[in-house]
Amino acid sequence: MNNIALILSGCGTYDGSDIWEVVLISYHLGKRGQNPIFYAPDIEQKEVIDHLNQESLSDKRNVLSESARLVCGEIRDIKDLYGKDVDGLILPGGGGAIKNLADSLGEENFLKVNPEVKRILREVYRRKKPIGACGLASLIVASALRDILETPLTLTIGKDPKLMRQIEELGAVHVISRGTEAVVDSEHKVVSTPASLLKLKITEIALGIENLVSGVLDFIELTQNRRSHA
């Protein structure tokens, strides 16, 4: 059994982690006998959105507390997450990925990733452990790793021209992908899928996430096999 960290960004697709994505990632990891461990930053949400009418509310909510709703309270502060303690890392998408896991949004410097999120992504990458990204989380991965890579990441973020351009401005190579598919960057051990960004049926999103989980676990198995034969 491998320990796979999931970094959550709240509860709800417009201002937190996409619920379908978190559930499906957890399901497919559990189905493969893996151990998902949940983390989130202990910070205030940038925005709270009414998911019925998509209007912004004046509420104040905590990202860690809201994320706990998704996992029955079994969640930890991201400050307690270290690359040495996990075998892989997956970031679900949702609006919270870029609102709560990043410090700011802007045209010139599109994402300033939360320092703890950036730290753990770099730790996992430098230890040559795999990273998975759903939907908007691909922007987080591209932003956090961009200045430590010798060659570009290959990622998908769906088919939205604006998002594709933003990925490319971060130095990554974008691949248009179906929601049932996952794009595998073998050089960097990064796997991505558009997931809920494409507004598909849950059965289609489930296929894409199953492929993402399989890609992450394949990298882990490959690394473990090499160690056992060393």
Any descriptors?
230 residues; Rossmann fold; seven-stranded mixed β-sheet; two-stranded antiparallel ribbon; 35% helix
CATH fold topology: Rossmann fold
Q: Which strand order does the major sheet show?
A: 5-2-1-6-9-13-12
CATH homologous superfamily designation: Class I glutamine amidotransferase (GATase) domain
Please state roughly what percent of the residues sit in beta strands, choosing from under 5%, 5-15%, 15-25%, 25-35%, 35-45% or over 45%.
15-25%
Q: How many angstroms separate the termini?
A: 21 Å
Q: What would CATH call the architecture?
A: 3-Layer(aba) Sandwich
Helix percentage: 25-40%
From the structure provided, what is the oligomeric state, counting identical versus distinct chains? Answer: single chain
Please outline the major beta sheet.
7 strands, mixed
Query: Taking Cα atoms only, what radius of gyration do you get, to the nearest Å?
Result: 16 Å
Structural class assignment: alpha/beta
Q: Count up the domains.
A: 1
Rounded mean pLDDT score: 92
Treating each run of at least 4 consecutive H or I residues as one helix, how many helices?
A: 7
| Count of extended strands | 13
CATH class: Alpha Beta
| Principal-axis shape | globular
> Which spans of ≥5 residues are poorly predicted at pLDDT below 50?
none
Task: Give the helices and strands as they follow along the chain.
Answer: EHEEEHEEHEEHEHEHEEEH
